[in-house]
Write a structure and sequence with these properties.
Layout: H1 2-20, E1 21-27, E2 33-39, E3 44-48, H2 62-69, E4 73-77, H3 98-109, E5 115-120, H4 122-131, E6 137-143, H5 155-163, H6 173-181, H7 186-194, H8 201-205, E7 210-216, H9 225-230, E8 234-240, H10 251-261
Parallel strand pairs: 3-4, 3-5, 5-6, 6-7, 7-8
Antiparallel strand pairs: 1-2, 2-4
Helix pairs in contact: 2-10, 3-4, 5-7
Protein name: AB hydrolase-1 domain-containing protein
Domain AB hydrolase-1: 44-142
């Protein structure tokens, strides 16, 4: 009898996990297939990964687990060109903010009426543009980012676009070597930088929702986080211990984000 109830309990546990956690796929406006995970059953939160990365970068972070433990529904896509999503090779597949279009259509696909959103590094750049296009976002977190992405001629973006086309220097060599080591698609990474979204300060000034800018205290790669905070009518800045590559994984980052979302 005990054995019977054990297997009944185990079956219910497995069933519960299947209804609250799944890998999904949808076809975007131009036929590109986007892969995403969808876990939890509460208020939805969209997580956006950084450059040379994928949805799996969030897997073992304190933030993802804390969001789930706090009752949020966590949605994490592989943005086009990354992870298990399609990696188109043509310029047109990345021009005109196609990544932002993907995200809007993903949230349409999931029948979202409203949601919160968190980006890190390049994910914050994409999220900033999303905030100008989708009024369903009720709160946003821009992690690991400063003001520099608002410049359409940002030298760092141009430098990395060239690097992933073959013009590598001492600054970009480590990133290119890492991308090769994980068998990332170099052509797609080049195009992601070439057509990276640019959101003007004037457009950021129009955003009314609460926005948290959060960076590690050793992270100044992408310009002034304080200047970025000042572009938002309801902006807040928090610095936590960490460098650019590690801050988003830390408990301090998670605690600050959860407090802001609540």
């Amino acid at each position: 009898m005990v054995k019977k109830y054990f297997f009944l309990w185990l079956g219910l546990l497995l069933f519960a996990s299947t209804v609250t956690s799944q890998v999904g796929e949808f076809e975007s406006f131009d036929g590109v297939h986007i892969i995403y995970t969808d876990e939890g059953d509460g208020e939805p939160v969209l997580l956006l990964h950084g450059f040379i990365n994928s949805r799996k970068s969030w897997e073992k972070t304190a933030l993802k687990q804390d969001l789930l433990d706090s009752g949020y529904r966590v949605i994490i896509p592989d943005m086009r060109g990354n992870g298990d999503s399609d990696k188109p090779q043509t310029d047109i597949a990345y021009k005109d903010n196609t990544e932002v279009k993907d995200l809007i259509l993903l949230m349409n696909h999931l029948n979202m009426e409203s949601y919160k959103a968190i980006g890190y590094s390049r994910g914050s750049i994409v999220l900033a543009k999303l905030l100008t296009e989708d009024a369903r976002v009720t709160k946003a977190v821009l992690g690991g980012m400063g003001i520099d992405f608002t410049n359409p001629n940002w030298d760092r973006r141009i430098m990395f676009a060239k690097a992933f086309k073959g013009d590598v220097d001492e600054i970009t060599k480590g990133a290119v070597d890492y991308a090769k080591s994980i068998k990332a698609d170099l052509r797609s990474l080049h195009l992601q930088q070439k057509y990276q979204p640019v959101t003007s300060v004037e457009d950021l000034n129009k955003i009314k929702i609460a926005v948290l800018v959060i960076c590690g205290d050793e992270d100044s790669d992408n310009g002034s986080a304080e200047e970025l905070r000042n572009t938002f009518e309801n902006g807040k800045l928090i610095r936590v211990p960490g460098d650019h590559n590690g801050t988003y994984k830390t408990k301090g980052f998670s605690n600050s984000v959860l407090q802001f979302l609540e």
